[in-house]
Amino acid sequence: MAAPAPVSNSQHANRTVLVTGGGGGLGRVIVEHFLSVGANVVTCDINAELLADFTAKVTSAYPEKTLAVQCDITSEAALDELFAQIETKFGKLDYVVNSAGIMDRFDPAGTIDRALFERVLAVNLIAPTMISKRAINLMQKHQIQGGAIVNIASIAAFKGGAAGAAYTASKHGILGLTRNTAAFYHNKGIRCNAIQAGAMATNIGNSMAGGYNQQGLELAMRQCKICTRKATVCHHADHLMLCS
C-alpha cells in the first residue's frame, strides 16, 4: 500500500500503539487508521500468512513507524519478547488495542469441549489481561499520561445466547477486566474502554471450520435479529479512535 501523508497535528501523532490480531480483519483496519493519523504501530498476529501480507503491504510502506511480530499471545515468553521489541524500537507505549480473538462453535455448557473452552478463554480473556499488565507497567515506567487500553468486547458480553458458552464467558470476562482496569488506573493517566462489537465480516469465524452447533447458531441468530444492520470493521475502527 502507498503511504498517505499522516495528519501531523493529530493527537495520535508519534504515539505508539499495540494492536493484537493486527494482521487481518478488524485489527488490520485499526492499524491503518492509526497510521493515517501519524501513530507508530506495533502489530502482533499468530497467523504467519496474514503477517507476511501485512509486512509486504503495510510495513514496507511505513518502515520507520511499524513493527510486525509473529506472536502467540497465550505464551508468557512470547509476550515478554514482544514488549521488549516494542521498547527497543519505540521506547514507549501509549495505547493498546486488544483486538485478537477466536470464536467458539456455539456449544452450550452441556456439549462444550473442555480443550476448546480453555483455548477460547486463553486467547480472549487471559491474554488481554496479561497484555494489559505489561502495557500498564511499561506506561508507568515511562510516566505516560493519556495512555489508553481498548478491549474489543462483543454483544455476547450482554446477551446469553449470542454465541456459545466459551465465547460468551470470555466476553463477559473482558467487560469485567475493562471495568476493573478503568477503576484502578483512570486517576493514574491510563484509561480503559471496551467496544461492544456486533457481527461483521472478519476472519474470526475461521475457528468454526471444523463444525459448529447448529442449535446454538440458530439461537444466536434469533437473539441478534434486532441488529438488522451489520457494522463494518471501519465503523468500529472509527469508534475506537474516540476511545484512545
Topology readout:
Elements: E1 16-20, H1 25-36, E2 40-45, H2 48-59, E3 66-70, H3 76-90, E4 95-98, H4 114-141, E5 147-152, H5 165-185, E6 190-195, H6 214-223, H7 233-243
Parallel strand pairs: 1-2, 1-4, 2-3, 4-5, 5-6
Helix pairs in contact: 1-7, 3-4, 4-5
Gyration radius from CA atoms, angstroms: 18 Å
Q: Count helical runs.
A: 7
* Order of adjacent strands in the largest pleated sheet: 3-2-1-4-5-6
Specify the CATH architecture. Answer: 3-Layer(aba) Sandwich
The separation of the N and C termini measures 25 Å
Fold-level CATH name: Rossmann fold
β-sheet strand percentage: 5-15%
Helix content: 40-55%
Structural class: alpha/beta
Identify the overall geometry.
Answer: globular
Family: Belongs to the short-chain dehydrogenases/reductases (SDR) family.
GO molecular function: oxidoreductase activity
Keywords: NADP, Oxidoreductase
Organism: Dissoconium aciculare CBS 342.82
Q: Can you characterise this structure?
A:
- The protein has 244 residues and is of the alpha/beta class.
- The protein has one domain: Rossmann fold (3-Layer(aba) Sandwich), CATH 3.40.50.
- It is 45% helix and 13% strand.
- Helix 1 (25-36) crosses helix 7.
- The two termini are 25 Å apart.
- The mean pLDDT is 85.
- It holds the Pfam family adh_short.
- GO terms for molecular function: oxidoreductase activity.
- Belongs to the short-chain dehydrogenases/reductases (SDR) family.
